[in-house]
Write a structure and sequence with these properties.
- The protein has about 250 residues and is of the alpha+beta class.
- The protein has a single domain, classed as 2,3-Dihydroxybiphenyl 1,2-Dioxygenase, domain 1.
- It has 4 helices and 14 strands.
- It has an 8-stranded mixed β-sheet with strand order 6-7-8-5-9-12-11-10. It has a 6-stranded mixed β-sheet with strand order 2-3-4-1-13-14, with helices on one face.
- The longest helix is centred in the N-terminal third of the chain and has 12 residues, at about 15-25.
Length: about 250
């Protein structure tokens, strides 16, 4: 029986081969088999990144109200990964503890797509392991999150839970910044605390070996969906236990 999972993110880009080289050389992903796409990933339980040639011309300029926002790569040792990227000429923001949410850093790929790096543990807490200088990003990396924006969180949560069979894992309020964060996943595990608002669920979430779907719920304004074939348009692939697939945009 096929395992249910958030199996892939398809992203329209200008240069699939060039981006694949970046993700493999600097972020430690591997080329994977895929139909009609250049696919990269870590080859474990997380999602694959499908890089598809955009048919609509134009450079990608991310917007704060775009439906698609980012992927997050979760890993054991963020300080090590940041130093390694810097040594190789790749710019990323200085790692910092963002409230009681995550120890994180950000960078962009050569076409401007946002990549978030999240350590398995909060700043100052024990790491799940120290970085390995023989491995990109210090090893242990996974595509931990795919992040979409929403202006109607109840509709998205209902579809994910009732139509797609996902479990509601965490809610993280950042209301003063104009948004809240919601996390759902296809898993049989139960989070440490049944209260989705509990802080103790957060490090647990960053340590999952599979990909979780995150929604940034905008508290004002409307989310804009790019034309299906335009640069920057994205869709999430959900693999079901019977081998069928649902595409979620």
């Amino acid at each position: 029986m096929t395992k249910a999972s958030i199996s892939a993110l398809s992203l329209n880009v200008n240069d699939p081969e060039g981006l694949a080289q970046f993700y493999c050389e600097f972020l430690g992903m591997h080329r994977l088999e895929a139909d009609d796409a250049v696919a990269v990933g870590y080859g474990k339980d997380g999602a694959v990144l499908n890089l598809i040639q955009a048919s609509a011309p134009g450079n990608y300029h991310p917007g704060q109200q775009d439906r698609y926002w980012k992927i997050a790569i979760t890993l054991p040792d963020l300080d090590f990964a940041h130093a390694q990227l810097s040594d190789r000429g790749i710019s990323s923001t200085t790692p910092h503890q963002f409230r009681d949410i995550a120890y994180m850093s950000h960078l962009a790929d050569p076409e401007g797509h946002v990549i978030e790096l999240i350590q398995h543990s909060f700043e100052g807490n024990p790491r799940t392991r120290t970085g390995d200088n023989t491995a990109p990003l210090g090893g242990g990396a996974e595509i931990g999150l795919i992040t979409l924006r929403t202006d109607n969180i109840e509709t998205d949560l209902t579809e994910c839970r009732e139509a797609l069979g996902m479990r509601y894992l965490s809610r993280q309020a950042v209301t003063d910044l104009g948004f809240d964060l919601y996390f759902v996943g296809l898993c049989d595990e139960t989070q440490p605390n049944s209260d989705v608002n509990a802080i103790e669920n957060r490090e647990w979430l960053w340590q999952r070996p599979y990909t979780v779907l995150e929604f940034q719920h905008l508290l004002s304004g409307s989310v804009l969906t790019r034309p299906k074939h335009a640069t920057g348009a994205a869709c999430v692939h959900i693999q079901h236990t019977d081998g069928t697939e649902t595409v979620f945009r």
